[in-house]
Design brief:
The complex is a heterotrimer of chains A (127), B (304) and C (497). Helices cover 73% and strands 0% of the residues of chain A. With 127 residues, chain A is mainly alpha-helical. Chain A has one domain: Helix Hairpins, CATH 1.10.287.3510. In chain A, helix 2 runs antiparallel to helix 3 and helix 3 runs antiparallel to helix 4. Chain A is elongated, with a radius of gyration of 21 Å. Chain B is mainly α. Chain B has a domain of 192 residues. Chain B is 63% helix and 0% strand. Chain B is built from 12 helices and no strands. The longest helix of chain B has 27 residues. Chain B starts with 6 loop residues before the first helix and ends with a helix. The longest helix of chain C has 35 residues. In chain C, 77% of the residues lie in helices and 2% in strands. Chain C has a domain of 208 residues. Chain C is an all-alpha fold and 497 residues long. In chain C, helix 3 runs parallel beside helix 14 and helix 7 packs across helix 10. Classes of the chains: A mainly alpha (127), B mainly alpha (304), C mainly alpha (497). Chains A and B meet through helix 1, helix 2, helix 3, helix 4 and helix 5 of A and helix 2, helix 3, helix 5, helix 6 and helix 12 of B.
Chain lengths: 127, 304, 497
């Protein structure tokens, strides 16, 4: 039991990330409001980035920017997750913009942002 | 269940259901007094009746699915390597080379910049193209054409624009004039120091874009349009991305065939060093700044 | 200095990317169209050369993107199978664009056509990159590119219906990419690598020591579900009919024919090059694929049977065909995977042929889409009529056409696994009958002389009549007669993967 608690406290970032992921995923599925769907998608993506970034950290080491010419791998944290997170953030920004643009168009057509209503109205469209 | 009958909980439930914004006071009707503007409710289509609304077992299934997924993930997390442990599997020969040989091979003091723009540059090329794609798809949807505009909406927009033009906020304008040079300067600093310090093209470009957006929201997009038109946007974005892609094509093809690319790396630590990374950072900065401002402008006015 | 043909994969990807970037600057949409046709034709030509060079020597090579080798830089891994898929992707993109361009200019507004061409080039680039890549994170980036580009070419038609279907497509795709990304992240956590051969080494080591057994199962599941959502496997494929049925003809042809297949190619590559196929079989992922594939075959067929709108019927039928492919992958025998790939190749030619012919037929009848309203249309343009008939017959599984051979190999593969034989045979039979039930009435309808709709005098569609329809028809017949040769290439490629 003690061991479990220790692991939990140690892995707090990962656990928070998983909980946030579930939160975002559930809202992405269940929210009817499109804007909230987009926000929950962003929560989901951010939780993955938190998870990834937490994998890069190593206790007691510093950010991977070479200082005073010290070229020792034992001084700096893992640079790979930072790079991957950067890539992921850009992708998520782009997708969010596209999603929002679609929402704006649908709002202009149907004057609502409720996903279910929009889907019903769309299904009634002739072509 | 008396506790759930309170006003707060009622509001909370409505908010969760996404019905209406009950936390807000009723909308100010004075704004819509102009006779030109038709009421929004008149344009509403007939809503579907209640039994048509699809609210089946989907909710329960999703909750079940998500709880299952989260518990499996939590269990997995418990089985994963510990946080911050130097003996983790991720600490291996890959990182060792990035850190120890990075400066020698890429010339960048910032190991992350060296990694994303030199070692794993193909990913980053894809990522920069994603930005172009996002800009293009947003323009495809929202750029004004005969399909997505109708005279009523145009009337409302023109009316709103008129109000906005009349009520330009003086405080915002003055503070923008003070802040803007600093923001632009800081953005440029972050972009061109990408290989030396935290930051780089993406963060610096976002700062520059934010500066442009601030200027546009203080003085109106028409003011920005005097210097930044659709044509500038297209030429800047595509030529920056083009430079990026051609530089990287050169490096990929020559590097793969084992030919020396003959790009001088310079002295590590100097501004003009680390070969192509500096150029690429500037390109990425331009792309990001233009795309960010482009998003703002297209979303607010439907044109750049 | 590498042999010259080693550079072909990188050149094709980068050529597509660069031409996609240039297009916004081009003055007219005709110029953009020409550039697009040139690039996809160029990719098909180069991939044909690569195929010619790689197949006789059984070559499988790794190409570093830049000067940094395996665990540090990005890489491409290329063999006969990848070259074949790239050839199909390039050729079918070229043909779909050439055949559908008239409808495309009718459907998309003048100011937006250049955006469409940018998207098309980026889509081709992402498909090629997903096929060739040897790096898991690169595949994630290009999956996202293809998601955005695919949604954008659906929405380019800009009717309320396409916008609605796109938002559904996008929401589900994002779920898929979220799951895929978390799979990639977990895999990185336990192995510390992103390149496929190193990942495989680490995973085999972990399996041997018995460490992290549970995370590995979860990761395989997450990567599979993430891709299955995007490639429209049965329970996740509800977005497909509306998105593919509503788009403009070129988009429908490319989405149904190629994009779904690009994801499956990536999935197979991940299974072979990261987990090894034996591990995947012992984790029972193949069983899930088998069951979902079987249900998908039946479900897609039933939905297609009930559909009146001709393009949505074709889209539902795509869902059934994806079921065939996943059933083949799930058969637990190597011949099954090869048969699934033959099915991929055949479907990549047949479905664009059907979509383009149906698009042409409805173009003659004033863009009517219901199959009832299309009566007699084949007499107005017999090339499109023959194309539709040929494609339908191939779908039903008439011998000497591509579809027959794919089904034949699927059954032969099922024979090798007695546990999965009977369900597969039974479902294939039902599905074939269902195919006949909804394709043959369509064929009869278009050849029945009756003037329900007034034909509008459309100009001659040169791209369709002289390029797209003949080449696709010849390809379908060629695959039916000479498909064993393609099967040989696929089997060699799979053995080297």
């Amino acid at each position: 039991m003690n061991n479990l608690l220790k692991t939990m406290i140690n892995d707090r970032f990962m656990i928070a990330a998983v909980l946030l992921f579930g939160f975002g995923f559930m809202n992405l599925l269940l929210q009817k409001n499109l804007i909230r769907k987009i926000i929950s998608f962003n929560i989901m993506e951010s939780s993955i980035f938190l998870f990834l970034a937490s994998q890069g950290y190593i206790n007691g080491r510093i950010a991977p920017i070479i200082v005073d010419g010290i070229l020792d791998a034992d001084v700096y944290i893992n640079p790979i997750p930072s790079g991957l997170v950067l890539t992921g953030i850009v992708v998520s920004v782009s997708v969010t913009a596209f999603f929002l643009a679609l929402t704006v168009r649908l709002y202009n057509i149907y004057k609502t942002v409720d996903f279910d209503e929009i889907m019903l109205l769309v299904n009634k469209e002739a072509e | 269940m008396k506790i759930f009958k309170g006003r707060f909980f009622q509001n909370l439930i409505m908010w969760v259901n996404g019905d209406t914004e009950h936390f807000l006071p009723p909308a100010d009707t004075k704004m819509m007094e102009s006779p030109k503007v038709p009421s929004v409710t008149q344009t509403l289509r007939p809503l579907p009746t209640k039994d048509e609304v699809f609210l089946g077992s989907f909710t329960g299934l999703s909750i079940f699915l998500v709880i299952g997924l989260v518990s499996i993930l939590l269990l997995t997390t418990y089985n994963l390597p510990l946080f911050g442990d130097p003996d983790n599997p991720v600490v291996n020969e890959v990182i060792k080379r990035y850190v120890e040989k990075g400066v020698e091979e890429t010339g960048a003091i910032n190991v992350v910049a060296g990694m994303i723009l030199d070692y794993r540059a193909f990913d980053t090329l894809g990522e920069a193209s994603v930005l172009l794609l996002a800009g293009t798809s947003v323009m495809m949807l929202l750029l004004k054409d005969i399909k997505n505009t109708d005279p009523e909406d145009d009337q409302i927009a023109a009316y709103e624009m008129e109000i906005e033009e009349r009520n330009r906020d003086l405080i915002l304008q003055k503070i923008t004039m003070i802040l803007l040079p600093a923001i632009i300067l800081y953005g440029i600093y972050v972009v061109i120091n990408g290989h030396l310090s935290p930051g780089g093209g993406f963060s610096g470009g976002a700062i520059l874009g934010a500066g442009l957006i601030l200027y546009a929201s203080a003085f109106g997009t028409n003011e920005v349009r005097k210097i930044f038109t659709m044509k500038t946007f297209k030429i800047l974005t595509t030529s920056a991305l083009m430079t990026y892609a051609i530089c990287k094509t050169y490096v990929f093809l020559l590097g793969a065939n084992g030919i020396d690319t003959r790009i001088p790396l310079g002295t590590p630590g100097a501004i003009f060093s680390s070969g192509l990374i500096f150029v690429l950072d500037v390109c990425v900065g331009i792309i990001v700044a233009c795309t960010m401002y482009g998003f703002y402008s297209i979303f607010t006015t439907g044109e750049i | 200095m590498l042999p010259l043909h080693y550079n072909i994969p990188a050149i094709s990807i980068l050529a597509c990317l660069i031409s996609g970037i240039v297009i916004p600057l081009l003055p007219s949409e005709r110029a953009a169209l020409r550039l697009n046709l040139t690039v996809s034709g160029f990719v098909a030509f180069l991939s044909a050369i690569l195929l010619y060079k790689v197949v006789p020597n059984n070559e499988y090579f790794v190409y570093t993107m830049g000067s940094f080798p395996a665990p540090w830089g990005n890489e491409l891994a290329v063999g006969p199978l990848e070259a074949l898929m790239a050839f199909v992707f390039g050729l079918v993109t070229f043909l779909s664009l050439a055949g559908g361009v008239q409808t495309l200019f009718h459907d998309i507004l003048p100011g937006k056509r250049n955006f469409f061409f940018t998207m098309l080039n980026m889509l081709l680039a992402s498909l090629l990159a997903m096929t060739y890549t040897n790096d898991l994170f690169t595949s994630y980036v290009f999956i996202e590119i293809s998601t955005l580009a695919a949604c954008a070419i659906v929405v380019a038609r800009d009717t309320p219906k396409t916008i609605g279907s796109t938002i559904r497509y996008l929401a589900l795709s994002l779920l898929g990419s979220g799951l895929f990304l978390i799979g990639v992240v977990l895999l990185y956590c336990i192995t510390g690598h992103l390149l496929m051969p190193h990942l495989q080494m680490q995973i085999l080591r972990l399996i041997a020591t018995g460490k992290y057994a549970m995370p590995i199962t979860l990761i395989a599941g997450l990567l599979f579900v993430g891709i299955a959502i995007k490639s429209a496997l049965f329970p996740f494929g509800t977005w497909l009919p509306m998105a593919h049925g509503g788009a403009t003809t070129t988009s429908s042809a490319i989405l149904s024919g190629l994009v779904l297949k690009g994801y499956i190619m990536l999935l197979v590559k991940i299974f072979y090059r990261i987990f090894t196929i034996d591990l995947i079989r012992s984790l029972h992922v193949t069983d899930v694929m088998y069951v979902c594939g079987l249900i998908g075959m039946i479900y897609g067929s039933i939905e297609a049977y009930r559909e009146e709108h001709i393009k949505r019927m074709l889209a539902h039928s795509s869902m059934a065909q994806i079921g065939y492919i996943f059933m083949g992958l799930g058969l637990d025998v190597n011949l099954g995977i090869a048969a699934a790939f033959l099915q991929i190749v055949v479907h990549a030619f047949v479905k664009p042929l059907l979509f383009l012919s149906a698009g042409r037929l409805s173009e003659i009848y004033n863009h009517e889409k219901s199959s009832y309203r299309l009566r007699g249309s084949a007499h107005k343009d017999w090339v499109a009529g023959i194309g539709f008939t040929l494609g339908s017959l191939s779908m039903v599984g008439i011998p000497l056409l591509g579809g027959f051979l794919a089904k034949y190999y699927l059954i032969e593969a099922a024979m090798q696994n007695p546990y999965k034989l009977w369900p597969a045979l039974f479902t294939l039979m039902i599905s074939a009958v269902m195919n006949a039930l909804y394709y043959i009435p369509g064929v009869i309808a278009i050849w029945t002389r009756s003037e329900l709709s007034t034909a509008n005098p459309v100009e001659h569609n040169i791209g369709f009549t002289w390029i797209a329809a003949p080449v696709l028809s010849i390809a379908v017949v060629f695959l039916g007669v000479n498909g064993t040769y393609v099967m040989e290439i696929i089997q060699r490629g799979l053995a080297l993967l």
